[in-house]
Amino acid sequence: MAEKAHYHLEQTLPSLQLYSQRGIFDANELALITKQRTTHEYAIAKRIQQKIDYVDAIEYEVKLGMLVEERIKRLKLKDGGGVVKAQGKNAPHAHKRQEEKLI
Length: 103
Prior knowledge:
With about 100 residues, this protein is an all-alpha fold. It has helices spanning about 1-10, 15-20, 25-45, 50-75, 85, 90-100.
């Protein structure tokens, strides 16, 4: 269980590094993002999954994506600084995992 959760968390590291490099989030915010993602990944990886676990994870990633877009506009980063492309992978990935497990 923990190995799957850690694997999926490691897949999000490139986007977190971009957030840090571009100044979109500071270290404290990145720690909170990682903590929230860890909570969601462990909920998804548990033996008996519920749809709400997936819904919560997808909802969190969508809201995080909206926040990233707002900060990119505020910071006036050219072409999103490559961050939008990295962010766009997380919510659809969680949705795909939901379909594989529950449907």
